[in-house]
């Protein structure tokens, strides 16, 4: 009997490529702390102190290094915002490109941009600040179709019973990316190869995986020349034929969606959850290195721990959630949403109060609550995002797109806010940040728990009492 595992190869290659593209954007969040070594008060401006563990040696450095890499707080924060600006720019024509050229060709084009920009980032940094900023924008453009890919692969290539597993695997790129790039960057930064090696390695890998993706991927299994009849039937069993497979364009009821207050409550709840995640996504290494004095090498591994915890949380709690049958969908959504944002808010408050109450805090205590923020944020996909899928049904891509825009806006605006609130990256300044974030989260989760819904909205046209719709929804959210 002929067997085929093409769908698993599609999943693997797509996940690895998405991970690399996400890692390309994350790498700068760490390498910026080692692009220019720390200055020593005892050496001239053309010499700097290279730090490696507890050892420091003064070595001469060209003035050009200072000119190109020693950015002001505002310049540094603008470089963080550049990728978000690129993601917004890349998202504007995304629907047109996907409709006209298909997901495969569109994602290949964006992936090539990400890989090429990553390869040229060290060169652009050596030219001037404007060139580096432009390359960071292009990196952000390459990140724009991530959510489209996540939805396309899971909807088209997973069986009904494994859709949730596909979603878990694909969305794990948000953890795999930092886990891969942060410790690697920490090692390379202190090696003879230096920080540019991070971008050369990841850029080459991205382009290689992009070529493999273009060769292997198809928008639908129906169009793949290598798929067997048996595997095609396995994938399609129990599914309603997708619009993509039928090449049918369905009109989206934008007016009804925009007028629905439940949609706005859900989007606000996502904003609170994403804000908590992005604080340490962007500024975790800087917070540990600048505010608490961790070495570059120690920061690399310390900043990786939260992503490992979040990944384990997804893999463990996801299946557990699906097996809790004694609670309604709404109760489960509310419980996991409260755990996610409530837990993160408590950790932020503790991080803010500890230095105020006790002064110097042992770094291991900071690490515990720093890591716990990402752990709790990892539970958010069982709350707000699951609610988005349920209430929007086959229009969930609309809400996912809007949530992607919210995420980009947070990444775009957050550096500007941090530049005002914590320009010197001191513990006291970060305490102010950690007081403000939980206030937003508590308001968001309170509104969500009071008003969220766990049934398809009227504008979806889905019969709530239909068994087929219910089973399809549950299958699509299995282990998500």
From TrEMBL:
Residue span, Major facilitator superfamily (MFS) profile domain: 15-456
InterPro entries: MFS, MFS_dom, MFS_trans_sf
Coiled coil, from the record: none
Major place of residence: membrane
GO cellular component: membrane
Membrane topology type: Multi-pass membrane protein
Pfam families assigned: MFS_1
Chain ranges passing through the membrane: 5-23, 78-98, 107-123, 129-150, 157-177, 197-217, 333-358, 364-385, 397-418, 430-451
Cell compartment(s), UniProt: Membrane
Keyword Transmembrane helix tagged: yes
Keywords on record: Membrane, Transmembrane, Transmembrane helix
GO terms, molecular function: transmembrane transporter activity
UniProt xrefs under PANTHER family: MAJOR FACILITATOR SUPERFAMILY (MFS) PROFILE DOMAIN-CONTAINING PROTEIN, PROTEIN CBG23364-RELATED
Name this protein carries in UniProt: Major facilitator superfamily domain-containing protein
Species: Ditylenchus destructor
């Amino acid at each position: 009997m002929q067997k085929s595992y093409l769908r698993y190869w599609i999943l693997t290659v797509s996940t690895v490529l998405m991970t690399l593209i996400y890692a390309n954007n994350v790498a700068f969040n760490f390498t910026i702390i080692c692009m220019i070594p720390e200055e020593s008060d005892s050496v001239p401006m053309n010499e700097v102190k290279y730090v490696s563990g507890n050892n420091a040696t003064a070595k001469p450095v060209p003035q050009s290094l200072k000119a190109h890499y020693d950015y002001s707080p505002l310049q540094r924060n603008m470089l963080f915002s550049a990728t978000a600006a690129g993601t917004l720019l890349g998202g504007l024509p995304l629907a047109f490109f996907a409709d006209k050229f298909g997901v495969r060709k569109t994602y290949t084009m964006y992936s090539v941009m990400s890989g090429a920009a990553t390869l040229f980032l060290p060169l652009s940094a050596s030219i001037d600040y404007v060139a580096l900023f432009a390359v960071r924008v292009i990196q952000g453009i390459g990140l724009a179709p991530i959510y489209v890919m996540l939805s396309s692969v899971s909807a088209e290539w997973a069986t009904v019973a494994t859709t949730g597993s596909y979603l878990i695997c694909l969305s794990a790129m948000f953890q795999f990316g930092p886990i891969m790039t942060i410790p690697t960057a920490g090692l390379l930064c202190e090696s003879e190869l230096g920080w540019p090696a991070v971008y050369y390695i990841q850029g080459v890998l991205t382009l290689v995986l992009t070529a493999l993706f273009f060769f292997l991927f198809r928008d639908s299994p129906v169009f793949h020349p290598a798929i067997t009849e048996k595997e095609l039937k396995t994938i399609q069993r129990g599914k309603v034929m997708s619009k993509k497979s039928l090449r049918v364009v369905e009109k989206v009821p934008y007016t009804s969606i925009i007028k629905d207050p439940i949609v706005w409550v859900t989007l606000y709840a996502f904003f609170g959850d994403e804000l908590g995640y992005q604080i340490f996504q962007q500024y975790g290494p800087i917070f540990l290195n600048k505010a608490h004095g961790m070495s570059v090498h120690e920061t690399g591994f310390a900043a990786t721990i939260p992503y490992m915890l979040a990944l384990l949380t997804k893999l463990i709690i996801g299946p557990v959630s699906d097996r809790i049958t004694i609670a309604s969908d709404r109760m489960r959504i509310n419980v996991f949403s409260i755990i996610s944002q409530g837990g993160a808010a408590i950790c932020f408050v503790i991080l803010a109060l500890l230095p105020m109450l006790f002064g110097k805090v042992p770094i291991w205590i900071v690490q515990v609550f720093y890591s716990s923020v990402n752990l709790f944020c990892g539970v958010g996909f069982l709350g707000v995002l699951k609610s988005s899928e349920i209430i929007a049904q086959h229009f969930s891509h609309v809400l996912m797109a809007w949530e992607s825009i919210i995420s980009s806006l947070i990444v775009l605006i957050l550096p500007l806010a941090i530049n005002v609130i914590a320009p010197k990256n001191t513990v006291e300044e970060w305490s102010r940040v950690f007081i403000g974030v939980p206030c937003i989260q508590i308001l968001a989760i309170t509104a969500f728990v009071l008003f969220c819904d766990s049934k398809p909205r009227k504008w979806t046209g889905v019969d709530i009492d239909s068994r087929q719709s219910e089973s399809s929804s549950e299958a699509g959210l299995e282990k998500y």
